Amino acid sequence: MKIYTKNQLKIYNSLTKKKELFTPIEKGYVGMYVCGPTVYSNVHLGNVRTFMFFDVVYRYLLHLGYKVRYVRNITDAGHLENDADEGEDRIAKKARLEKIEPMEVVQRYTVDFHNVLDKYNFLPPSIEPTATGHIVEQIEMIKEIIDKGFAYEVNGSVYFDVLKYNKEGGDYGILSGRKMEDAIHNTRALDGQSDKKNPQDFALWKKADKRHIMRWTSPWSDGFPGWHLECSVMSSKYLGEQFDIHGGGLDLKFPHHECEIAQSKTCSGVNPVNYWMHTNMLLLNSQKMAKSTGNYILPDEILTGENKILSKAFSASVVRFFNMQALYRGILDFSNDALVASEKGYHKLMEAVASLGKIEAGKISTFDVNTWKQKCYDAMNDDFNTPVFISHLFDAVKNINLIHDKKATITPEDLSTLKETLNAFVFDVLGLLDDTKTQSSDKIDGVVGLLIKLRNQARENKDWALSDQIRDELLAIGIQLKDGKEGTTFSMN
Ligand code: AMP
Ligand code: ZN
After folding, report:
1. Per residue in 155-210, pLDDT tens?
2. Could you tell me if residue 4 is inside a domain?
3. How far apart are CA 202 and CA 204, in angstroms?
4. pTM of the full predicted structure?
5. Which residues contact 428 (CB under 8 A, 6 or more apart)?
6. Do both 289 and 230 map to the same domain?
7. Are 161 and 236 part of one and the same domain?
8. Does residue 470 sit in the same domain as residue 329?
9. Residue nearest to atom 7 of ligand 1 (CA)
10. Would you say residue 1 lies in a domain?
């Protein structure tokens, strides 16, 4: 039986709004660019959803045998409040509030981002460029856009002329589907306070006011680049004028990615990206998870259980499993109950993977492993349909359990295919971690739960010495008990 893999992958292209057969440009590698975080605060679980999905895309492409050059940037300058062309730089604002240097803010939250990626088992990208490391290239691109006649300078700032671009054959609005009158940036141009000719125009370079510390010398002013420019510059520098995949969250479609297309196309004359991919939002309390509204949960809080939404701590793999049980193009509601359900499924899967090593082969197979394998690939090849993929993994779980209980059999050849494939899917493609750690954390939950019970009995018997001893000795090994209205909980450090 032929196993279709590489040549069958279909990707939903946000630009054409169709699923298209993935045909990489012949460069010897697949080029993938994903917009990275703006490092002015800790990444929240919504950001993690987006980055985790592209981690799985990267993993699957590698699994299919592609060589991939994966570029994910760090935005450390130029991203203003409200994604606007006016207002304070997010990083500079944080630095002002915390009375530290902007680069201290950048360092702190870049380190935090990397810690999260480590704990959640992400593969590192091939290149992780920063905006501040590419100021020279950004100035060069602005000069090129001015030379081509699509940008103008006013009072030391430079703006992209969207109306002229479209009048001369440009396609601003093509990605987001916005009409010109709706393609207006958060701007003061509407009330005549801006230097822009039209409210649709966006900044390529901003003159810095006196208090703005993050500034660089340019032909136009001491200032800083516009937020959208860095991604055009860094993607073309590392992946070429045209590359295969560009990803990010849905909220980046407009204006960020729309502006990227206009900038890149002005310089190169070609469409920069063949497949645009956008992840949908993770919601909390039915609202988009976002730092600005305070409606968020941090990845570290999941691991410690220290958030009032959570009944307990969950492992990073449970969060991965939870994310992958949903289609990336749909919204996903975060809740404690959903994580509890995912944890059950994840444990079932891991137990089956562990018991695979112990089962014995027989003379015949009652489970058609090759058809199963094909179905798994078909699901992933259907625009990374991870929920269907996972449902097929559970067909394997059901059969493994039957074989284990001697209610079904499998030939040695099929057993070896099953082991190899399931391990590759679970660990390499989904990026789940071995569950030994999770199992031991379950055991800790059980043991501490028992001690809490014994302490409660001691308190009922007014045996304060014993109850204090349990609390203090747990604290000495880093387990803190907390007495609340709903009973006693614990946290670990
Ligand atoms: P930012 O640092 O704000 O540029 O965000 C980094 C990435 O996270 C971008 O691709 C965003 O689109 C994405 N993102 C932000 N909020 C959410 C959310 N609630 N759910 C999923 N992705 C998100
Ligand atoms: Zn970007």
Report:
1. 999 999 999 999 999 999 999 999 887 777 765 544 445 789 999 999 999 999 88
2. no
3. 7
4. 0.88
5. 59, 62, 63
6. no
7. yes
8. no
9. 47
10. no
